[in-house]
From TrEMBL:
Signal peptide: none annotated. Keywords: Hydrolase. This is HAD-IA family hydrolase. It comes from the Bacteria.
């Protein structure tokens, strides 16, 4: 695990995934989806492999068309109602604080109501630019969330560093033309394809130059 070439580059902006990157919502997510799966006669095996994707996309993959609307409404309600034991992951608060004067954003597969509920539950000081799955036509692994985040930040995607924990998000970042830093908070290192890989945000430090340029440095 190391930053690799990322340690030698300057970036105009940093775009963070949220769940699994900035906050740990794993228990709450597992409870909501377990309840939803039981209600719809699905197994844990059928749910596997969808981490990092918008819930609506998962529903559409698993259920027939006539069930989509009600099933999406149900998982959204379950997730918004359960924001217990959501915590900020190591290094996340420091990373956001360090970038307060720089351009940074969150691009998440949550809907806006769910993202706001989890941010509030974690007491996270989130950046002003927040892109959610209900703001784009195609969610991760499509590049749309990161492209929209870059547009709102006023920077070119290829000048952005994306921080992600999920293969779907890393695929989306690559398609958007962004550099990618992976954290192994939810997915084994061997399943992550990125320009650099670290354990979590506690392993790195973000430095902002006088011109607003951003560098990332690995902590000893």
């Amino acid at each position: 695990m190391a930053l690799g070439k990322l340690a030698e580059l300057d970036f105009d902006a940093v775009i963070f995934d949220m769940d699994g990157t900035l906050i740990d919502s794993t228990p709450a997510v597992a409870r909501a989806w377990s309840t939803w799966a039981q209600e719809h006669g699905l197994t844990a095996e059928q749910l596997a492999g969808h981490h990092g994707m918008p819930s609506a996309r998962v529903v559409r993959k698993l259920l027939p068309d006539h069930q989509h609307e009600s099933a999406i409404d149900r998982i959204n309600a379950l997730e918004i109602d359960d924001v217990h034991d959501i915590v900020v992951l190591p290094g996340a608060a420091d990373a956001l604080a360090a970038l307060r004067s720089a351009r940074n954003a969150i691009a998440t597969s949550c809907t806006m109501p769910l993202a706001r509920a989890r941010i509030a539950a974690a007491d996270l000081a989130a950046p002003s630019v927040l892109v959610t799955a209900d703001q784009v036509e195609h969610g991760k692994p499509a590049p749309d969330p990161f492209l929209l985040a870059a547009e709102r930040l006023g920077v070119a995607p290829e000048r952005c560093l994306v921080v992600e924990d999920a293969p779907a998000g890393l695929t989306a970042a690559k398609a958007a033309g962004c550099y990618r830093l992976a954290v192994i908070t939810t997915t084994p290192e061997g399943e992550l394809e990125a320009d650099g890989i670290v354990r979590n945000l506690g392993d790195v430090e973000f430095l902002v130059g006088a011109d607003g340029g951003i560098r990332v440095r690995e902590l000893a």
